[in-house]
Design a protein that fits this description.
The longest helix has 28 residues. The relative contact order is 0.17. Helices cover 77% and strands 0% of the residues. Helix 4 packs antiparallel against helix 5. The protein has one domain. The chain contains 5 helices and no strands. The model has no long low-confidence stretch (mean pLDDT 81). The chain is mainly α.
Length: 82
């Protein structure tokens, strides 16, 4: 999913559907964002010197967008979950 989001072959708005499952299991928005941050940090650390500034910028932009979209999905789910 991350690779497809990063290369643009998956629209982030169509990938956020799974967040409702995670919320139902008690996984909050912060935990989801933390999970993706850990994944990105692991990839960056694994690449070491091969990690480039352009990669950092692209990942940060993707994270910002994911945070926004997932936040919207959390708000929708929270408003319908009584």
């Amino acid at each position: 999913m991350i690779m497809e989001l990063a290369d643009g072959s998956l629209d982030i708005n169509h990938s956020a559907y799974w967040i409702t499952d995670h919320l139902a299991w008690g996984v909050g928005k912060a935990m989801v964002i933390d999970m993706f941050n850990i994944i990105f940090e692991t990839i960056r650390d694994g690449l070491g010197k091969q990690w480039e500034t352009e990669m950092e910028v692209a990942w940060c932009e993707l994270m910002d967008e994911m945070t926004r979209v997932f936040g919207e999905q959390v708000a929708i789910y929270s408003n319908t979950d009584n």
